[in-house]
Structure formats: structure tokens, C-alpha cells
Hints:
By secondary structure, the protein is an alpha/beta fold. The chain contains 7 helices and 6 strands, in the order H-E-E-E-H-E-H-H-E-H-H-E-H. Helix 5 (131-137) packs across helix 6. The longest helix has 14 residues, at 56-69.
Amino acid sequence: MDTIETQLAALSPGGAPPVFTTAQVSYAVAETSIGRILLALNDSGALVMSRFTTDDQSEDTALDRLGRTLSPRVLRLPGRLDEPRRQLDEFLSGTRRAFDLRTDLVMASAFQRSVLGTLAETVGYGERATYGALASAIHRPTAARAVGAALGANPLCVVLPCHRVVGSSGALTGYAGGVEAKRYLLDLEAR
Length: 191
């Protein structure tokens, strides 16, 4: 039976650990006016995650999910995320109304992609929709709760504006960044 040292030596000539010059997933954590947001790009430069991470444990959970879904080569490379961070800062300061970033919904299920695609196409800056209206727009009028769950797992928060969806009464229901972050974003867009 091979020892771990023998197995590592077989993977890396000379017994040295492998050295990666690039990451398949690069990430950075941005401290924003609405909380900590982890941003991640795939190796082609498309944004695959914009997720609230309130603490180290939620950051680790997000990184684990990236590693399991995309690649174990997930590296903190803040310089690669300068453009998404800049656009996020501009959006949150009110000087940008739309993101100009390539995105990839690889972290979303087929149903989530349907919901998020319809959201992006039908609910513009400063507008609001209800979960029921969005369910009807995807031709699933009884799926308001499923739409809510899909939005709750949005892998591209803020960039794909799930904050624009409210309860049928207009109530600010659940949001990954918290209700205060949702209120901030809706107030920002209402100005």
C-alpha cells in the first residue's frame, strides 16, 4: 500500500507540492455599505458568485460550494476582481444603474436560471415585482414560494436584482443580505 508521501511524490516530481500559476476560480471579499459580499470569477473572467458573507463561516461555506461545483483551485486574487468591485461600489453609491459584467449562472439550478433570467428581463432599475407576478411571468402561476426560494439562493445577489421582488402586500420579505440591505437597495433605486 502506498503512503501519502508516495502518492504525493507521484503527483509532483521531486516531491515538492504542486504550484498553480493561475486559479480556475478567483475571489475577493468586498466590504460594502450593505455588508460583506464575496465576489468570484471563473477562469474565463465571468462572474459566478456575488454572495453575502456575514462572517468567516459563511465565507468558508461559499468557498466550499465554489470548490465542489467548479474547481478545487479557488484562490483569493483580489486584483482580478477590481472591475466587479468597482461596479458594485458605483451601484451602491447610486452612480451606476446597471452592471456591465459577463456572468455565468453555473451555480444556479435550471429553475433558478429561468427565474433569474426572467427577473433580469422584466424588472428594471427602480421597479418592483411580486413573487406571484414573477411566477406568472415564468408560466408557473402557483409557484410563488418556489420563486422565493430560487431568489433566496441567487448566486449573483445585487448583480441580478432579486432585491426588487417583494411580497404581494408590498412587504419586504426575506433577503440574503437581510431586510435592511433590501430596504437600502430599494430606497437607493427609488431616488
